[in-house]
Amino acid sequence: MRAIDAGLIICHECHQLNRHEPELKRQFCSRCGGRIHERRPNSLARTWALLITAAILYIPANVLPIMTVNSFGKGAPDTIMSGVITLVDNGMLPIAIVVFVASILVPTFKLVGIGLLLYSVQRHQPMSARQRILMYRFIEWIGRWSMLDIFVIAILVAVVRFGSLASVEPGVGAVAFASVVILTMLAALTFDPRLIWDNTESDDDHE
C-alpha cells in the first residue's frame, strides 16, 4: 500500500509524514512548514528538460578541450579521452583511471539510466518497480562522484606548477562538463520516485 492510499503525504524537506487534506488547495508540512504535494508538479517534464539539455551539452564536453598538460614548455589542448591518454603517457595512470571513470562512464550511465527510467515510467515498459527503484538509487549514489574529475583537474592545476617544466591548465570543455554534471544531478532530484510505484499500480503517470 502506498502512503497516499493511507491518507499520508511525505515532506521532501524533512521527510515528515503529514495527513493528506484534499480540501486544501495548498498544504504545508506540520514540522518544517515546507510546501508538500501528493506528487511533485510536472516532475517528468522537468526531468526530461534537464536530461535533454545535459545530453546536448555532453557533446561539447567531449569535443572541446578539457585541459592542457604542458611538459618542458610543450603541450596541446586535450579532450577528455585524449587527456586520459596524455595522463597515461605522463605516468599518471591512477589519475587517468579516475578521469575516465568519472568523465566517461559515470555521465554516460547517468544519462542513459535516467532516460530509461523516465521512458519506462511514461510508457509502462515491462520493468519491475524493484528494478526501477534500484536503478534510481544507484543513479543517486554515483551522482556524488560526478564532480570528482573536475576536482582532480583543479588539484592538478594548483599542484602541477613547475615553471616551464610542467603545468596543467583547464579548458573550456571543463565548463561544459561541469554543466552536464550539475544538470544530471538536478534531473535526479526533480524526478519523483513515487511515480515508480504509481506506475506499477495504475496507468496514471502523473505528469
UniProtKB/TrEMBL annotation:
Ranges annotated as spanning the membrane: 48-72, 92-121, 142-160, 172-191
Subcellular compartments: Cell inner membrane
Main location: membrane
InterPro entries: PqiA-like (IPR007498), PqiA-PqiB_transport (IPR051800)
Listed GO CC annotations: plasma membrane
Domain of life assignment: Bacteria
Alphabetic keyword roster: Cell inner membrane, Cell membrane, Membrane, Transmembrane, Transmembrane helix
Designated name of the protein: Paraquat-inducible protein A
Organism annotation: Pseudomonas straminea
